[in-house]
Design brief:
This protein has 248 residues and is an alpha/beta fold. It has one domain: NAD(P)-binding Rossmann-like Domain (Rossmann fold). The protein is built from eight helices and seven strands; from the N terminus they run E-H-E-H-E-H-E-H-E-H-E-H-H-H-E.
Length: 248
């Protein structure tokens, strides 16, 4: 790709931020989105320091008007969207099923599932008009396995992977590829909140065959690849980036 326009939701920390930096270092045009203006503007300035054209647009992926405006503003500013990385997500309320509520369900699914659906709806609208595009939804290896005390999060990520594959089939003849990237245990703020204690995090590391947590930069490299022309025959695929965590 050369001077592609990249749109990233949930871009202000962790995997989203690392992905924005990876694309900016390649000279791509990057639009980053999130809900914190100060952090978003600072990130856009940092991306410009790598020689990238970059903009921050505030949007809440749970709100369709925000998502519609995010896509429309990106197209108005840069003319197109070549790659969309739908990374906005939350771990929700971790705990036993008897403690879950309609509110904890909605808080998790509205961001992790509805946010992906609304983002794809409007990204596809823009990409169909240009006849090409690549969408990458960020899932989790829990999107195809189970995890005690994380039923709502696991359910949401199962949904993301099913939706990704279904939309990939829907769009296969349109020039738009749709894939997912599923991080294994990755050293982010979300993982720290999810595990709760240093002992729990160490126990998770012990389950990774490569013997370490993933880094956000590891995920960013995989995302850049699957978005690229080198992956042009890949669609409807969920790429595990997990240090071998799901191999056994």
């Amino acid at each position: 790709m050369s001077k592609s326009v990249i749109l990233i939701t949930g871009a202000l920390s962790g995997i989203g931020r690392a992905t924005a930096i990876a694309f900016a270092k390649k000279g791509e045009t990057v639009v980053v989105s999130g809900r914190r203006d100060e952090a978003g503007k600072a990130l856009a300035e940092e991306l410009r320091s790598f020689g990238s054209e970059a903009e921050f647009i505030n949007a809440d992926v749970r709100k369709e008007d925000d998502v519609r405006a995010l896509v429309d503003k990106t197209v108005a500013r840069f003319g197109r969207i070549d790659v969309a990385v739908n990374n906005a997500g939350t771990e929700g309320q971790v705990g036993p099923i008897v403690d879950q509520t309609a509110e904890s369900y909605a808080a998790t699914f509205d961001t992790n599932v509805l946010g992906v659906i609304l983002s794809m709806k409007h990204e596809v609208r823009a990409m169909q008009a240009q006849g090409s595009g690549s969408i990458i939804n960020i899932s989790s290896t829990y999107g195809h396995k189970g995890a005690a005390y994380a039923s709502i999060y696991v359910g949401a990520k199962h949904a993301v992977e099913g939706i990704t594959k279904s939309v990939a089939l829907e769009l296969a003849a349109s020039g738009i590829r749709v894939n997912g990237v599923s991080p294994g245990p990755t050293d982010t703020g979300m993982l720290t909140r999810f595990t709760g204690t240093a002992e729990n995090k160490a126990a998770l590391v012990a389950q990774v065959p490569l013997g370490r947590l993933g880094l956000s930069e590891d995920l960013a490299k995989a995302i850049v690849f699957i978005a690229s022309d080198e992956a042009s025959f890949i669609t409807g695929h969920i790429l595990n980036v997990d240090g071998g965590h799901t191999a056994n």
